[in-house]
Write the structure tokens for this entry.
Amino acid sequence: MVTFDRFVLSNGLRVLVHEDPSTPMAAINILYNVGARDEDEERTGFAHLFEHLMFGGSKNVPQFDTALQRVGGESNAFTNNDFTNYYITLPAANMETAFWLESDRMLSLSFSEKSLDVQRQVVCEEFKQRYLNQPYGTAWLRLRPLAYQLHPYKWATIGKELKHIEEAKMEDVRSFFNRFYNPGNAIMVVAGHVTTEEVRKLAEKWFADIPGMDMPQRHLPQELQQTEARRVTFKTDVPANNIYIAFHMGDRLSEQYYAADLLSDILSRGTSSRLYRRLVKESQLFGEVNAYLLGSLDPGLFIVEGKPLAHVSIEEAEQAIWGELEVLRSQQVEDYELEKVKNKVESTMTFSEMSILDKAMNLAYFELLGDAGLLNAEVAKYRSISASTLLEAAKQIFTRENSSTLIYLAENHDGQKHSA
């Protein structure tokens, strides 16, 4: 169980504290309730761009990392479609430095053309290297808009198009920052060798004077129920054929989410999982095959992805995947198999409570979901899922009309493609 205290500053900043005197370190995690889903469809990639801009210096501190490294600290961040997360670890004795740096960039981020130009180039290069110039790198640029017609999950965190970042203007950047990067839209968690009282004093000292703003209201278009299968095939220069099948599923707080997560483990967690055992080891149809969730806050996607071996046609490979999904739709999972994946989930969550940074991140995430205390109920929610609940979830999720299939066909150097 992860214990914590909570208080809220007058400007709306929520602060959570987890005291752990067993370590000399402290972790400071600030989660901003903004992700790619909050972007304008004609100006995508801004949430990720801001992740970079936040390290580009403020009016008072030109080099964020330099000041932090001098006191033994490290920092990083990540962005997804739902939120942006910044974190610092450092000796607890130097914790105030982290408060100073984080409050300074929340209040006084540098909006210089030089910083924007530098970070824009960095993000554009990342777009090219990780997405445009990698085998299968365009998969999420293609699969998301295939599965989503209305919801802003239809573009990836990196952005919908490279030109949206290339053409980002200073006024657009300022507007995005002013709307989302404020105390009322942030959650700060401090974990480690700290006390709630000292965290409260530092939070008041460094953050209380930052003006509060009204919380931005989301009015996101909701995805309609998919009623027919979607499919697209690309012949391109990739090492091997690849199949992606996406299925719509419930949101992060739904019972179906927990059932789907367990189904993904039954299918592909470890060498004893169904897909590996039956499609890789026994029938030798695939070189690799996996099932996973995107973990979205709003109704998300369940993905089955696999690379068939060169002698296997796409039709045969797809049929094999659907055969395994049909088993889940028609036969209740045995108790021993369900217990096995539940134990693995519990083990993973137990290990995640060993690191103060992981605890800080998890508390921030569950506070975003509505209450950090939900973290301590996660194992019980997985434990409550029955075999009949799994069967019902499989019946609802794994249908042809709920599927969006993306196929990559590999072309040989002589221009001939593999079996398809």
Notes: The mean pLDDT is 94. The first strand starts at residue 5 and ends at 8. The longest helix spans residues 113-132.
